[in-house]
What we know:
377 residues, mainly alpha, Dna Ligase, domain 1, two-stranded antiparallel sheet
Amino acid sequence: xTGKRLxxxxxxxxxxxxxxxxxxxxxxxxxxxxxxxLYGAPASGLGIGTVxxxxxxxxxHQADLLEGTDEQPHETLKIKINAGDSASVISTRLAEVGLIxxxxxxxxxxxxxxxxxxxxxxxxxxxxxxSAVEIAAMMIDPTPEDVDFVILPGMRYTEIAxxxxxxxxxxxxxxxxxxxESGEGLILPPVFQSAENLEGxxxxxxxxxxxxxxxxxxxxxxxxxxxxxxxxxxxxxFSQQGLDVYQAITLASIVEKEAIQAxxxxxxxxxxxxxxxxxxxxxxxxxxxxxLGWDGANQSWWKSPLAADDLAVSSPYNTYIYGGLTPTPxxxxxxxxxxxxxxxxxxxxxxxxxxxxxxxxHVFAQSYAEHQLNAxx
Length: 377
């Protein structure tokens, strides 16, 4: 084969090789480098092939990631991200409301950056003028605009205040405690005008609070939302039991701490109502626990078990020695405790005690003699 023929054969081969090498260089080096300039470094766990493929997609869809879906500012859109929502679910949700133009490209961007596994739950306010990249940056911020604040049934206000240091809110537990005790700056809704203090005026539940809220704004919001639950129909149901709203909350708070099994609450309410109607003391252990306060030995606000001497503590909250309801509620109440007070079961019971099987249920009795027979061996 002559040299001229060899040259004729190898020139196309060399040309193709140069094109392939150039393409590989662009695909493996140039575009990934440019994408890093645009979006920053990729997640460390991605292989070079995955980085190259994702870089090509992100490079060719820059408008979908770097521009908002609307140039004109409009009302912001509230988006709630729940704990456990996947990056795919979140991408779909954002696309459905028009915040991002392409859910698949957005998802690829999240994976490329490693954001798909660190998206933060919470409530966010987004604008269509924001780019997908800006939206993603907000969703990896561990301090979203709103805070989910959960109050459990049976919490006294000191226990609610103890939640503040880990809540992400901008005030201290001491500020909230001082506000609970002084009420300074708060406006009680009409339905709570007879309240002695703020204990029990916040229902148990899941509240969404602005992270920037002050202690006054926080507590006012929770009290107002609780007051809104007491519609004329609800207050009318309490009246049928001879109770006003504050008395109903107070009774519900005692039931909240007495009942372990929710289905027993309406029966326990009937026992207490029967006692109140004949002037018989409630003789409820949780009211004594409230009176005793912090139990250093057990590191708890609710001493258990109570000693015989505890039942003689001198306090208006001790329903063993003082008749009627306690001066205030003793804790936050759940909606089903309030329902039990509004619609109690009708019974002839005046006594109850814990069942001996450890089930959390109670045994009920009409007379003290029967009550004694129900004692555990």
